[in-house]
Write a structure and sequence with these properties.
endoplasmic reticulum, 5 helices
């Protein structure tokens, strides 16, 4: 990109020295309605994420809390192995290949995901019986209407 910009700059300056017209470079603009639609969609995603984080921080859902903690831990482990640009490359690659592979091997993936879900539920039940059920809890608060 820098090389192309430098070549166009030198070409434009050279054309003025030899009294020719500079290269015709088209004007590129983002339409306002497209920018508004993208910003609205981004705002909705950010608001949903903030709502999810608020619900987790208030302690309403233990499963979501443990999922977020596990996800952040995995992200930190992967981030310690490679830099941000490599993570972006990996994310773009996965965004383009995973849906195609899922469509091709949907039956096998669904079967494996079902088995993994049952195993995760078994482990959660063990965790609930041995640890979570022993945590003392206060009386449930009544909701104000």
């Amino acid at each position: 990109m820098i090389g192309v910009l430098a070549i166009l700059f030198v070409w434009s300056k050279a054309m003025t020295f030899i009294k020719k017209s500079p290269p015709d470079i088209p004007v590129v603009e983002i339409p306002e309605d497209l920018a508004l639609n993208v910003s609205r969609a981004l705002r909705n995603d950010v608001n949903r994420s903030l709502h999810l984080l608020r619900e987790i921080a208030m302690g309403h859902d233990l499963k979501k809390f443990l999922g977020v903690i596990a996800g952040l831990w995995v992200l930190s482990e992967v981030g310690s192995c490679c830099d941000f640009l490599t993570l972006i490359y990996i994310a773009v690659l996965m965004i383009h290949t995973v849906p195609i592979l899922y469509d091709k091997y949907q039956d096998k993936v669904d079967h494996f995901a079902g088995k993994a879900h049952t195993e995760a539920c078994k482990h959660y039940q063990v965790l609930d019986q041995k640890v979570l059920s022993k945590i003392p809890r206060g009386p449930a608060k009544t909701k104000k209407t």
